[in-house]
Inverse folding.
């Protein structure tokens, strides 16, 4: 089921007759873990791989692999149904470790060439920094004249530029990293036959550099995961009185604006507005968030859950909330906003094209300029004072994003790949 680049270099290509009909090669952003003789994959990646397999006859997935115990949220591949012959997993060395990258890049390039020669379709997830094997794979495909797509989940160069703070050396290094990453992003986009760009925000930033850009979505929920009509009615009724219930689900990372999030809650507290807030997720800024909450006197109003591996528990928390409060500081298209709409939870946060497109569909939220915590606190306070509007917004959220389910978005991607990269050898019936 698995392959590795740890052995001698493989031949760079196979004869065209070795191509496996309607097979797909992808690179993953989440790493594999090999531990006690078993391979572990992130749970969301397992779900995605299985959905890809509903749309292509074989799926070959490549990612860096750590020889260590997996963190929470990773499961054993075979137990999760990721088995041969449907799946082929290619574990790669950690290219983000520069000595490893320099030592292994030729062997990895040859290995990727051998795998992609056996595939009908090829799609590479692009990070952009040195050591990103997606960049390597796209480069190999470009040099060999093999049709391929590139996938962007976010604008990594812009994220790096945002993080370029602190001392002067750190700022300079951050700008250098952002410039290198931007160069790699644009080179990959210009060289690819197809660009799959997740959400409106990413599309608006990167589509000018691609000759065939498409907006695509990425969601791990189905219709059965939506809030039930009974629960939605109870949620609307419960919004009439009591403390506001706010939530965020994601990493306590600078790009997510966690300190802005705490500042908004502090402003609500200063206005005398009662609330209960949940932050579901771990991250480097979690302790700083707790300290700031203590300083503002709102620690008792916030539950910091840390990482929660129990997916039903996360969905329950989202359904319980009345507002998805978000303070995203960089250009990305986060899935948690769609998950909130599936839970009938309105979106209040910093504006970007992706969030704006989701809110515009049914009017299920309010957005303010990025970084304006004062305006965001005022938007929340306005809803607290007008509970009828809040209840109506909950109903609007419940009607939103019905076209965004795992089955539908993967099927749409399959159709784009088939159309842009060539006709399928063995068409797959609609799921």
């Amino acid at each position: 089921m698995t392959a590795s680049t740890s052995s001698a270099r493989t031949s760079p290509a196979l004869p065209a007759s070795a191509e496996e009909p309607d097979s797909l090669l992808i690179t993953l952003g989440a790493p594999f873990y090999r531990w006690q003789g078993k391979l572990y994959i992130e749970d969301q990646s397992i779900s995605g791989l299985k959905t890809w397999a509903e749309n292509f006859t074989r799926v070959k997935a490549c990612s860096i692999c750590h020889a260590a115990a997996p963190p929470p949220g990773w499961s054993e591949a075979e137990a999760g149904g990721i088995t041969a012959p449907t799946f082929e997993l290619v574990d790669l060395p950690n290219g983000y470790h520069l000595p490893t990258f320099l030592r292994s890049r030729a062997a990895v390039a040859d290995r990727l060439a051998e795998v992609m020669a056996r595939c009908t379709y090829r799609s590479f997830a692009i990070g952009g920094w040195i050591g990103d094997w997606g960049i390597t794979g796209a480069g190999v495909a470009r040099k060999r004249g093999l049709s391929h797509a590139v996938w962007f989940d976010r604008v990594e160069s812009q994220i790096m530029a945002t993080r370029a703070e602190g001392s002067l050396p750190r700022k300079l290094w951050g700008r250098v990293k952002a410039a290198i990453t931007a160069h790699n992003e644009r080179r990959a986009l210009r060289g690819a036959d197809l660009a799959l760009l997740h959400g409106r925000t990413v599309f608006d930033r990167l589509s000018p550099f691609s000759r065939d850009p498409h907006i695509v979505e990425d969601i791990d929920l189905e219709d059965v995961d939506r809030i039930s009509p009974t629960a939605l009615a109870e949620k609307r009724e419960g919004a009439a009185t009591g403390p506001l219930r706010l939530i965020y689900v994601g990493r306590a990372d600078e790009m997510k604006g966690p300190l802005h999030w705490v500042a908004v809650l502090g402003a609500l507290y200063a206005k005398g507005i009662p609330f209960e807030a949940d932050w579901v997720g771990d991250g480097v800024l979690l302790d700083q968030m707790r300290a700031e909450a203590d300083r503002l006197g709102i620690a008792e109003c916030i539950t910091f859950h840390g990482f929660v591996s129990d997916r039903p528990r996360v969905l329950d928390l989202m359904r319980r909330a009345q507002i998805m409060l978000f303070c995203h500081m960089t250009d990305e298209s986060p899935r948690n906003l769609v998950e909130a709409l599936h839970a009938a939870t309105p979106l209040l946060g910093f504006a970007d094209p992706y969030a704006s497109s989701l809110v515009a569909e049914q009017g299920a939220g309010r957005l303010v300029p990025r970084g304006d915590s004062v305006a965001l606190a005022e938007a929340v306070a306005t809803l607290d004072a007008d509970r009828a509007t809040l209840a109506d917004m909950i109903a609007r959220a419940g009607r939103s994003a019905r076209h965004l389910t795992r089955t539908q978005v993967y099927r749409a991607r399959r159709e784009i790949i088939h159309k842009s990269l060539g006709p399928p050898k063995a068409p797959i019936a609609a799921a």
Q: What stands out?
A: The radius of gyration is 22 Å. The domain at 223-398 is CATH 3.40.50.2000 (Rossmann fold). The first helix runs from residue 43 to 53. Confidence is low (pLDDT under 50) at residues 1-17, 424-431.
